[in-house]
Task: structure prediction
Amino acid sequence: MIEIKDLKKVYAGVTVVNIPHLQINKGESVGLVGNNGAGKTTLFRMILDLIRPEQGEVLSNGENVAGHEAWKNYTASYLDEGFLIDYLTPEEYFYFIGGLHQQTQAHVNDFLATLNDFFNGEILKKGKYIRDLSKGNQSKVGIASCLLQKPELLMLDEPFANIDPSTQIRLKNMLKDTNKRSGVTTLISSHDLNHITDVCDRILLMEKGKIIKDIATSSSTLDELENYFAVSAAPSSIGIDEEENH
Amino acid sequence: MISIFLKHELKAFWRAKNAGKSLAVQIILGVLIVIFLLYALLIGFFIDKVLLHFSPKVDLVVSFCGVILIYYLLDLLMRIQLQELPTLRVQPYLQLPVKRNALAQYLGLMALLSGFNIIPLLLFLPFIFKVIAVRSGGGIALAFLLSILGLTIFNNYLALYIKRKANVNGWLLLIATGVLALFVLGDFMWHIYSIRNISYLFFGHLISSPVLVLLPLLLAVGMYYFNFLYIKQNFYLEELSSKKNAYKGSTEYPILNRFGIVGDLVANEIKLILRNKRPSSALKMSFIFLVYGLIFYLNPAFKTTDGIVVFVGMFMSGVFIINYGQFMYSWQASHFDGLLVSKLNFADFIKAKYFLFTIMSTIAFVLLTPYVYFGWRVLLIHTVMFLWNIGINTTIILFFANRNSRRIDLTKGAAFNWQGVGASQWIVSLPILLTPLVIFIPFKLLNQPDIGLAVMAVIAIVCLFARGFFVKKLEADFYNRKFKIAEGFREK
Result:
């Protein structure tokens, strides 16, 4: 599904992403963990052709994402509120996104009805523009619009942040379901080690732009990760993430 | 405590994100403000001449006293529309151990830092020194000075109080404006009473009994205290901020539905314009510009000479393209990443821009038809310039849109907002102004203006039919620059 070759991004002389090779197969659920500044969001942005890498390339279904657009047909992503058109109501936004995928309003309504529990009555028909919603609810709109697109590749940056515990659990189940039952390849980053090891079959651990661990999730994975983060809590590795602290 | 607030305020000013960025813009803005204030001062110095000109038979002081209250009524109307509430800046202090009194006082003081409070001083003080001090002595002049100050401060806090109240109930603003307008009309249209006389009633008596100065001073202090109490009692974010909590429904434009994705994009952009402060004032400006022609066509110095009509016609039907288009795609900066990763063909994105321009320009063109009053030739030239706008200026604007990567925050108002202004906005005006000039003037000089117009029309129509070609070129051009644009838009 995704193949990364020799990918490198440098900001002001500091290498923020450096991945010689990474292969993500169709149907895999991959979790990306790492402290702030490890390069997770930058990697996501390069996979989505939002920033130009210094070198290397990202292949999606064998085609370089840079300069091509076919990947947009089967890739749905939500990284931050910058992905939402915030002066629209959630309904208008969903209809717009649905329209891009040739879905009628009735079609979109049917789909949204299945998300009633996830929305918890906070999103639809509330008479608010997206910009007036709380961060958690904005994130729900973003995630729902991803699922609406019926993607083959789903990319979410910290989807568990800002949302309430019940929704987190619902989201976990939804993600497992989309991956297991519909075979959607998922790529998720998170700071919540419990959730990520629960949802993902494969964990990538990033540190200073490099993938230092690539593990298939097992019963010991959580301990392994907790150990890593406990040890590396030393001051030297605490960096400030440019992407997340703007 | 207040001195600390002031220090923070100064820091906020100097460290504002768009402060240091482009010095040129700052300087031009500063020069504009100085020019504006100088104008006010100039009027202030010659207000005696102006008054004499309009009412030569009335005593100068009498007509001056009559004008003051009229000014303050208009001032209040303007303030209600334009003055900003200095509010959210206290947000970071609300939960800290800072006395509410200090915060409320600080907000009150900051509210005085407004251009509206300087203008009346510039307008009235020169006259007070020039005429009243000479005729009636320093004491009376001081009484006038204090009265002016008092009324200014009173107006300042009254306007803010109305605006704060209007946050809770949006209709209040409309009602207040209506009442004020009716009050003014009652004098000037229906002649029920004379504001001039009421004004003289006070200021005339001020000359004989300066003790009356206490009245405006009391009004000012009272209004300040009233405002202070109101702020203190309503120290809640939602009441202080200027956000309104009305129900916001979804809207659809059925006509646009027929145009597929391009129609959807246009519908989104219309919502963007209507639902956000700054683009909506760009739209309002476009409507105001429709009367621009009157200034020229009615003026015997210009009349409807071809050259004038060419330019005025271009601005009137193209002002939206120029005024709104010069900031493209910055309007969409806040969700540009989302657009880039969505299943959206960029050609459709550009087509939607063309479509939007064509719609807005056509509306303007239709509204301009009454100008036929000035002759059929005016209509003819307006038609040519309308074609020119949708054929050529659209493409010029979009070409420069690909070169603009400054973020715009949609929620901020338009007045004195220079965010997103950069070199591209200055440069784009050159081709827009020069191209019609370069084509039309030679024919005009050869005394063949008709051929000149025909040539412009033909070029415009050819370009109109070549839109598909331009869309492809603009798309290719965009892909070369998209990383730079997207990166610029991400910088808050």
